[in-house]
Amino acid sequence: MSVLVAFRLSGVLREQPTISMTTVLDSVKCGFERPDSDFYVPCRLNSSYANEIELNQEIIGIKFHRLNWWLDDSDDVFFTICVNASIQTGFPYSVNITIREEYENSRVYFDEISSWPGIFYNPENLTLADYAEFLQGTGPKAFMTLVNNNFSKSVHFDGKIFWVLESAQNRTHSLEVGLDVVYWNGTVYKKVVQPFFIEIAHDDNNSFQTAAEIHEGNYSGYVGANDPIDYYKIYLTPGQETNVNINATSTEHVAIIIVSVYRPWETAPMRARE
After folding, report:
1. Which of 147, 70, 83, 148 is nearest to 109 (CA)?
2. One CATH from 1.20.5, 3.30.470, 3.40.1050, 2.60.40 for 5-201
3. 176 pLDDT tier (thresholds 50, 70, 90)
4. Which residues contact 235 (CB under 8 A, 6 or more apart)?
5. What is the rounded distance in angstroms from the CA atom of residue 129 to the CA atom of residue 215?
6. pTM value?
7. Would you kindly state where each structural domain of the chain is located, as residue ranges?
8. Is residue 224 within 8 Å of 249, Cβ to Cβ?
9. Sorting pLDDT into bands at 50, 70 and 90, what band is 237?
10. Which residues of 154-166 are buried (b: 16+ CB within 10 A; e: fewer)?
């Protein structure tokens, strides 16, 4: 059963200002295969911006929890959002967190937010003005609005978010976490928008034929007792070189990495190295 919870403090949420300019930063993404057991995700999403206002925003401490009995045996993911904003002329006006997923059967909630700030939230010069969680349907799943009522030159927030996956193990998910910071530069109000994405993919690259194609960048995968092998492929041109670095986040199992070179029309490797 889903329950809609919304909250507003009268007298705290001011009338929204007129925004003269909005800057949307490049999205930052992290993806991993949906594992069959609890899993600390070895990625950290971060963004920095400096133009009138200095912003440092992160999503850290991502953990996948398999079959949480407290959530009716649903899988869940929890993570921490961190926002730091400071300005010389003017003040940060508000920090707005909007969480979305274009999938109906998932939920997002803020742990023990009714006891704000409690032990899960650490605001500095920010007041909780409005929030909603457990929003049903596709699109918005939860939001939070924090305001700087003291007109301080700097603000900070960090807090835990829980994302409940009410879906089959082979379902993929993509959660968008939008962080909007509104500020006054002494003349006008402006907004900086930072989109973050956490993507969970179905683990379907367990054979040579279904190898996942990867490109330059960072990738997170999972192997375990019920998923002992994964295949990845990279296409190279003659003479091209590439470096592959593997970092294991657990010493419970010994990881064996085999790099093989194939001609496009063959299934037997020209060379293989373990």
Report:
1. 70
2. 2.60.40
3. very high
4. 213
5. 43
6. 0.75
7. 5-201, 204-274
8. no
9. confident
10. ebbbbbbbbbbbb
